[in-house]
Specification:
With 58 residues, the protein is an all-alpha fold. The termini are far apart. It is 95% helix and 0% strand. It has one domain. It is built from one helix and no strands.
Length: 58
């Protein structure tokens, strides 16, 4: 095994580790944004339901 092959194997391992971390961070951010969107939709629905309930009483 020459030096070039060793550096190639090491480079592939480092690239896989970096890609793994980046994909993990990306999915975490996307999951967080998805949860925020769902919470915003549910909050808007609850707000309009509550507003409708209180506007009928007056």
């Amino acid at each position: 095994m020459n030096k070039s092959t060793l550096w190639t194997i090491l480079g592939v391992i480092v690239a896989v580790i970096i890609a793994w971390v980046l994909v993990d961070v990306l999915f975490s951010v996307l999951w967080f944004i998805g949860k925020l969107v769902i919470v915003a939709i549910v909050a808007a629905i609850v707000f309009f339901v509550i507003r409708g309930v209180f506007s009928r009483r007056e």
